[in-house]
């Protein structure tokens, strides 16, 4: 009897059905060994060692102390018994660094040594599984070294920086290599929004009475362009080099009156071809972005649903940086397109896509339907699982379809001294958009009639509208995943978990599907930026990821890397860090954010008050601040029983943590914080 060990029970059941008699397929339930979370669980020979608290012997080439996880004791015992009687043991953890590490830890616990057989596959289909077990390989120790280095670095950074936050901020705070860099990116966007000064300007639009009619906007008066949002600085002033006319309400009303007495003459017509190429097949971040935009699903929810689809054998492995498709997959996608839309919907050759991510690490295919590309209507799913499978299916097929082709028309008109402009796009060949359209429709994409230079038209429905320049937009979870990927922060397996951690720590809140940094998040980011700037530097974090790739490729020594990052950079910064509590002056108010005992508060003229949990920095107005300071502020009525409970509990929890309190975290509470704070 042969033994195949996978990570999840659902996957084990599926593969057992494929392999049948002669095989036993069992799940290890993820990692079976890890660094100790307390020196109390260490063997006696380590308990008095200088590195006992860390679980990593820095002076001995960063040697980690691995212990079998207590929650996996029964699983490990069962696997040992099965391995002892098996004629061969195959380790089939996921095909990435974490999976390679799990396979190695299993080989150690089960005493497999050189007999360990490592198998990987991209999809859970009978063909893929049988091909994998027929071609086992040895464990890739370069991948294991890269994962171990990442784990050691996370432990050193987390255990080194988190205690600084416990003392300076108070409460069970945490810092980490990916988490803190992501928080800083969000914090910088939040600060840009808080300091932004909106500028008002007016725009005037008309309807041109052609056949059919179309809408046009005033763009210039006497040859001088009208101000737009792009004409202003973040401080609300016109840019020094801008030669524009800024309309106020009075001038806008005068302009409307003027246009009502004019006819417009076409002065220019420009036609240009439009070619839209299909988006590539889905990577991990691409799936999270598309599912967030189209299905309104959060990153963690997408990961959970996608993992379920993978374990059911419906889509390929979900952690990938690559948009590459195998020749077989391209053939299946083209076949499905031809069946649904006919051969004319296909280009002459299949499309292959190269990754644009310079930090791409995972040598996998894109996320696509597994096996024979079963249509969504025939797959037997429902709800969010069906919606996500349909997204993967349609995106994969669309990637192999023809370009969308059309024409853009731009029309310039002159009405006396006023210049107007209109544009529109018409697709003449829908191409891939017949199945999957990844662009939002725009009001400006109107179908313009064919007009000629010199034609004269009357105007109607002239209207003036006040506009305001907008601060930098907030990130949705999907957009921020894209930002993290572009900045090189984290990996496909960590995007969703990072956002989840930031929200669980109350550093970030999700409101109307947009990410907001909380007062506590701003204060933590402010402290880290001042005291340990390397940890929150996106370029530094991206370089760390690049060096981990080199370790995985065998071109960089893990010890040399850790010496450079830890001894040469982070450890000295941590030693020199001050423990003073952070303060953040609010740029839009005469007030300062402070923190005591892990509770964010507001200080105005030397008087402090704790901030309620659900109040975000952008909510704070002079009226709200006055109500908070006078004690008359009332929380909005909670919408759910859970929210009601949190609101009821809040005064008791807040009573000792007001910003004006001088009380610091006690030794007992600090110890409790150290035990509960995360380190990733």
UniProtKB/TrEMBL annotation:
Q: Which UniProt keywords apply?
A: DNA-binding, Isomerase, Magnesium, Metal-binding, Plasmid, Topoisomerase
Question: What residues form the catalytic site here?
Answer: 317 (o-(5'-phospho-dna)-tyrosine intermediate)
Record region (Interaction with DNA): 174-179
Q: What's the Enzyme Commission number for this chain?
A: 5.6.2.1
Q: Does the keyword Repeat apply?
A: no
- Which residue range or ranges hold the Toprim domain? 1-124
Question: Could you tell me where the Basic residues compositional bias lies?
Answer: 653-665
Ranges for domain Topo IA-type catalytic come to 140-574
According to its UniProt entry, one GO biological process term is: DNA topological change
Q: Which reaction does it catalyse?
A: ATP-independent breakage of single-stranded DNA, followed by passage and rejoining
For the keyword ATP-binding, the answer is: no
For the region Disordered, what residue ranges are annotated? Answer: 636-680
Supply the InterPro entries for this chain.
Answer: Topo_IA, Topo_IA_2, Topo_IA_AS, Topo_IA_cen, Topo_IA_cen_sub1, Topo_IA_cen_sub2, Topo_IA_cen_sub3, Topo_IA_core_domain
Function summary: Releases the supercoiling and torsional tension of DNA, which is introduced during the DNA replication and transcription, by transiently cleaving and rejoining one strand of the DNA duplex. Introduces a single-strand break via transesterification at a target site in duplex DNA. The scissile phosphodiester is attacked by the catalytic tyrosine of the enzyme, resulting in the formation of a DNA-(5'-phosphotyrosyl)-enzyme intermediate and the expulsion of a 3'-OH DNA strand. The free DNA strand then undergoes passage around the unbroken strand, thus removing DNA supercoils.
State the oligomer form and interacting partners: Monomer.
What protein family does this chain belong to? Belongs to the type IA topoisomerase family.
Q: What is this protein called?
A: DNA topoisomerase 1
Native species of this protein? Deinococcus psychrotolerans
The UniProt gene name for this protein comes to: topA
């Amino acid at each position: 009897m042969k033994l195949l060990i996978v990570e999840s029970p659902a996957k084990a059941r599926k593969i057992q059905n494929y392999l049948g008699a002669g095989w036993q397929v069992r799940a290890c339930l993820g990692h079976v060994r890890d660094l100790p979370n307390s020196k109390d669980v260490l063997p006696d020979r380590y308990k008095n060692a200088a590195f006992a608290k860390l679980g990593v012997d820095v002076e001995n080439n960063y040697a980690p102390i691995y212990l079998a996880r207590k929650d996996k004791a029964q699983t490990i015992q069962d696997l040992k018994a099965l391995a002892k009687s098996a004629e061969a043991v195959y380790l089939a953890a996921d095909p990435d660094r974490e999976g390679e590490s799990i396979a190695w830890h299993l080989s150690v616990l089960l005493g497999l040594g050189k007999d360990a057989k490592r198998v990987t596959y991209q999809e859970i289909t009978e063909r893929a599984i049988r091909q994998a077990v027929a071609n086992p390989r040895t464990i890739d120790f370069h991948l294991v070294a890269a994962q171990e280095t990442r784990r050691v670095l996370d432990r050193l950074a987390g255990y080194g920086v988190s205690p600084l936050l416990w003392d300076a901020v108070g409460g069970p705070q945490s810092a980490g290599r990916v988490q803190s860099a992501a928080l800083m990116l969000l914090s910088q966007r939040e600060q840009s929004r808080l300091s932004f000064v909106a500028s008002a300007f007016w725009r005037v639009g008309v309807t041109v009475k052609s056949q059919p009619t179309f809408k046009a906007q005033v763009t210039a008066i006497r040859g001088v362009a009208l101000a737009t949002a792009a004409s202003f600085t973040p401080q609300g002033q016109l840019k020094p080099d801008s030669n524009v006319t800024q309309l106020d309400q009075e001038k806008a009303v005068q302009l409307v009156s003027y246009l009502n007495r004019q006819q417009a003459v076409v002065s220019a017509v420009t036609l240009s071809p439009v070619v839209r190429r299909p988006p590539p097949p889905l990577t991990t971040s691409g799936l999270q972005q598309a599912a967030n935009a189209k299905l309104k699903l959060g990153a963690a929810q997408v990961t959970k649903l996608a993992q379920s689809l993978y374990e059911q054998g419906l889509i390929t492995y979900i952690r990938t940086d690559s948009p590459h498709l195998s020749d077989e997959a391209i053939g299946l996608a083209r076949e499905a397109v031809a069946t649904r839309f006919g051969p004319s919907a296909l280009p002459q050759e299949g499309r292959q896509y190269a990754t644009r991510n310079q930090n791409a690490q995972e040598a996998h295919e894109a996320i696509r339907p597994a096996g024979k590309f079963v249509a969504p209507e025939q797959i037997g799913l429902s709800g969010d699982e069906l919606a996500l499978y349909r997204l993967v299916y349609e995106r994969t097929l669309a990637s192999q379809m023809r370009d969308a082709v059309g024409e853009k028309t731009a029309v310039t008109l002159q009405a006396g001294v006023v210049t107007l402009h209109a544009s529109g796009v018409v697709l003449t060949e829908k191409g891939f958009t017949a199945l999957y359209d990844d662009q939002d429709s725009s009001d400006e994409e109107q179908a313009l009639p064919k007009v000629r230079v010199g034609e004269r038209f009357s105007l109607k429905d002239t209207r003036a509208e006040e506009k305001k320049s907008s601060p930098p937009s907030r990130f949705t979870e999907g957009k921020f995943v894209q930002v993290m990927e572009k900045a090189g922060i984290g990996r496909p397996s960590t995007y969703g978990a990072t956002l989840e951690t930031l929200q669980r720590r109350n550093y970030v809140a999700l409101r109307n599907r947009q990410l907001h940094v909380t007062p506590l998040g701003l204060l933590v980011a402010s402290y880290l930026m001042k005291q340990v700037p390397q940890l929150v530097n996106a370029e530094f974090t991206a370089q760390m990821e690049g060096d981990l790739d080199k370790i995985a490729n065998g071109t960089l020594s893990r010890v040399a890397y850790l010496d450079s990052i830890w001894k040469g950079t982070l450890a000295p910064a941590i030693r020199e860090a001050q423990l003073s509590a952070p303060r953040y002056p609010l740029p839009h108010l005469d007030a300062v954010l402070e923190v005591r005992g892990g509770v964010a508060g507001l200080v105005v003229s030397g008087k402090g008050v704790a901030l309620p949990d659900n109040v975000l920095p952008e909510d704070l107005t002079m009226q709200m601040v006055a109500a908070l300071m006078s004690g008359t502020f009332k929380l909005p009525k909670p919408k759910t029983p859970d929210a009601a409970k949190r609101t009821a509990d809040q005064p008791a929890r807040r009573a000792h943590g007001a910003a004006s309190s001088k009380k610091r975290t006690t030794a007992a509470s600090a110890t409790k914080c150290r035990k509960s704070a995360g380190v990733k």
